[in-house]
Amino acid sequence: MAKIIFLGTASSIPTKNRDNTSFLFIHKDNFFLVDCPGSITQKLLKADINYKKLKNIIITHQHPDHIYGIISLIHTQCYFNDRLNIFSNIDVIKIIKKLVVMFKLNKKDYPKINYINVFNKKIFYNKGNLKILAIKNKHIKNSFGLKFIFGKKSVFFTSDTSFSKKLLDSVGKVDYIISDCTASSIFFKKYPSLYKMHTDSNTLANYMKDKKDTKLIPIHFLLLDSTELKRIKNELKILNKNLIIPKDFQNIYIN
Fold first, then answer.
1. What is the span of the domain harbouring residue 221?
2. Which residues contact 204 (CB under 8 A, 6 or more apart)?
3. What is the pLDDT of residues 52-103, one digit of tens each?
4. Which of 119, 186, 189, 205 counts the most CB atoms within 10 A of its CB?
5. Closest of 67, 42, 47 to residue 57, by C-alpha
6. Residue whose C-alpha is closest to residue 162's, from 145, 174, 149, 148
């Protein structure tokens, strides 16, 4: 069994009820924080997770809303944690290394950081019946999605990406797809530059409607007006029972 705790479900612009997208993936004794926006320590506390001992962080790309909380988290682990594994691309790794030195978080009382380039191996994590793969997407240079494989189950997280049938087809059959679903097609038509980097709910629904054995979890919502979430839900409703629209701090169990 695996558990996903959504710490945030919004895009780069949060709302009163939704913060920047990040989540915890938990499988047995394996805890992974996926992306690290602000106030992450408080969010982990709210989720009843011991932030002091969190060992594994995956950052999917180098945009601020996915990385800006990492320095604060390292700072709060002073004296508490001896080791931290950061999995990402070379661009993110370079940024974090510079920030760690800048803020003097490389002293002996802070966790020793082990940086892992996710593209050095096809399966960058393979322990305890859990495999994790990084799959390049269509967002920015070296950005990537994640495929989690555990037992007979699998989950694919697209991270931020423009819609790509090739990308989604390439991961094969999975039980859940956690996908960029930034806004409705109406909003995208109003701001067409979004198509280059993100996915709209109508396009996503049309792709997923024939995937009877796969549940969709849309995420990364850009809700700049009070009716946008309703429009997103309306475009996705065709998926019926294969749709889960998460809220912040919602838990999803995968058996």
1. 2-254
2. 163, 179, 181, 216, 218, 236
3. 989 999 999 999 999 999 999 999 999 999 999 999 999 999 999 999 999 9
4. 205
5. 67
6. 145
